[in-house]
Amino acid sequence: IVNLGRMGVPVYSVDSNPRTITFLSRYARKVLSPDIKDSEDGYIDFLISLAKTLEHKPVLFITGDLMLLAILKHRDRLEPYYHMPFPPLETVENLAEKVQFYNMLDQYGVDYADTFYPEDVQEVRTVASSLNYPYIIKPVHSGEFVNRFHNKCLKADSGDELISLYELASQTEDTLIVQQELQGTERYLVYMYFDRHSNPLAVCCYKKLRITPIDYGNACACQTMWDQEIVDIGVNLLKKIGYHGLAEAEIQRDKRDGRLKLVEINARSTTENRLTAKCGMNMEYIAYCQMLGKPVEIANKAE
Q: What values do phi and psi take at 227, rounded to 5?
């Protein structure tokens, strides 16, 4: 909202939560919407009705995975009313659905943490004593999991703890992933915008300095830097899959073997985007201008 508002772009913040922090922004006109969890079709109908009240066709930005997936399912209904700087649904599913994501990384030879997908707690018991701990347990979708445990994953330092945590998490989660925890504090983010030909128009790289919650949360302090090896991991994969739109890759160096490993890719705008704007790469404004066919000046890189 700030990145667009400071460039003079009128912004509407649409949310079902009247206490959302974005309603406090001086740059946003707040619009209280139905909850997409109550009715996906009702939410889409609301967005269409909102667009019909506006003088110009607006550009739509999404900040959450579940909402992005839902909106892409209804792309045909929404595109007459919104400019949508998003890749196809299948591409986003391959990035957001963790099992599909790791299968894709195997296909393209991208390094990531040792991972397996138990069907039940018995499979966890079978392997628990042979693992090199610590390991983490995380869901395929993090929304309800985070609400329940106030974190994106659960850490186990032993076989007994892994079994116990898996039993606890599986009470509400149908599918869980068990993954070796990456060791070390070298965590990096690469925020990017790709045009419709999968050319990266803007790329900003930064290192996480502080995270909340500690280890598995969002970065609350970052430092810009440039490391071509780190940047190439995110850029090269997204170019191979024909990606376009906003994306942020999270990469970590595992001190066990010294290798850089891909953690995830968010196919949307993310929390730290004001840092990239400070570096001359206002990703949201770039996307906005691209959607409307307007010229925009883009810095080459941030160092």
A: -135, 110
Residue 115 — pLDDT band, cuts 50, 70, 90? Answer: very high
H/E stretch holding 247: strand 245-254
What is the pTM for the complete model shown?
A: 0.90
Q: Is the C-alpha dihedral spanning 208, 216, 70, 178 positive or negative?
A: positive
pLDDT confidence band for 299 (50 / 70 / 90): low
Classify 35 as helix, strand or coil.
Answer: coil
Q: Are strands 245-254 and 259-266 parallel, antiparallel or unpaired?
A: antiparallel
CA distance 161 to 202: 43
What SS3 state is found at 265? Answer: strand
CA 265, 267, 272, 277 dihedral sign is positive
Is residue 303 very low, low, confident or very high in pLDDT (cuts 50, 70, 90)? very low
- As a whole number of Å, the CA-based R_g of the chain is 20
Q: 72-91 burial, b if ≥16 CB within 10 A, otherwise e?
A: bebeeebeebbbbbbbebeb
